[in-house]
Specification:
The protein is of the alpha/beta class and about 300 residues long. The protein contains nine helices and twelve strands. Bound molecules: glutamic acid.
Length: about 300
């Protein structure tokens, strides 16, 4: 049975050419394999999410020719599902309370043998007495995944065979805010997503998400992590790089159709060179032939 792919933007700003490229690749990979395609609005970060960004994002995705099945799902409407999943994980012993401040984590990571980017494990094995003592200091705990330094491997559609170590990621912050890693997996399991195509900045989270998927009784999807679009200096493209959104580009005379042609050009042998629209590019689309390496984009008018 054909499965389901998705694009899951966070509405913290407008989509730029790099986000649009990832969205187009997710759509092409799903639709060319007869999958359903879903749009999910990952708006858990209350401080950065704005409804007007979602509206703009939806309009821009449509403008480059994407479509999706069903109404988009907003993560902010699903908090009770994430809490239920958290309780299930906690009841089965897969979580623990963490009282570390950011500063403490940074210091432990930068110590000799510290593991940059991963939780140092400080609160992993606290006794009940140690937990009580920390709680008495007044700060509620964050809840972390007990990752047990497990490894998970997957056959990435773009990067080939990959192995990563599960991190003890925060699932619920000390202030009660539910975390991306929990919500993304709860929703992928719930929506029966079996194909995830997204930016390669998320490849480091994949082992953790595979483990969480197993713990929540889902089947791990196939993953394809696509290289990001970079600016002239080789850094990940950002709003400050100039005319990088459809609206900015339109103001310089670059139409959505021009942007689609540029994206298609960046897909190299993955698409038919005669394609003029994303829909044209569906027959024969092959993500595995996507050129390796980041794609440089220099906004018009920026020198
Ligand atoms: N919402 C995440 C982001 O915008 C993407 C999540 C995912 O594709 O797994 O970075």
């Amino acid at each position: 049975m054909p499965g389901t792919g998705r694009f899951a933007p966070s509405p913290s700003g407008e989509l730029h050419v790099g986000n649009l490229r990832t969205a187009a690749l997710a759509w092409l990979t799903a639709r060319s394999t007869s999958r359903a395609f879903l749009l999910r609005i990952e708006d858990l970060d209350e401080q950065r999410s704005r409804p007007e960004h979602t509206e703009r994002q939806i309009a821009d995705l449509r403008a480059i020719g994407l479509d999706w099945d069903h109404e988009p799902v907003w993560q902010s409407t699903r908090l009770s599902e994430y809490r239920a999943a958290l309780e299930k994980l906690a009841a089965a012993g897969h979580t623990y309370e963490c009282y570390c401040t950011r500063k403490e984590i940074r210091e432990a990571q930068s110590a000799p043998h510290g593991n940059v980017g991963r939780y140092p494990g400080t609160c992993r094995d606290l006794t009940a007495a140690q937990r009580a003592e920390r709680r008495d200091r007044g700060r509620p705990p964050a809840i972390r995944l007990r990752g047990q330094d497990a490894e998970r491997s997957w056959e990435d559609l773009v990067m080939g065979r990959r192995t990563g170590v599960v991190d003890d990621v925060v699932l619920c912050r000390w202030d009660g805010a539910l975390a991306y890693n929990l919500a993304v997996v709860v929703d992928d399991v719930w929506q029966k997503v079996d194909q995830v195509v997204r930016g390669d900045d998320l490849a480091d989270q994949t082992a953790t998400q595979i483990m969480l998927t197993e713990l929540l009784s889902g089947g791990a999807p196939s993953y394809g992590h696509v290289p990001l679009v970079v600016n002239a200096a080789g850094q990940r493209l950002a709003k400050r790089d100039g005319a990088v959104t459809l609206a900015d580009l339109a103001a310089t005379g670059v139409t959505p159709a021009d942007v689609v042609m540029m994206l298609l050009g960046s897909f190299g042998d993955a698409v038919d060179p005669a394609a003029r629209t994303l829909r044209d590019a569906l027959p024969g689309f092959d993500l595995q032939k996507l050129p390796g390496g980041s794609f440089p984009f220099e906004p018009p008018g920026v020198r």
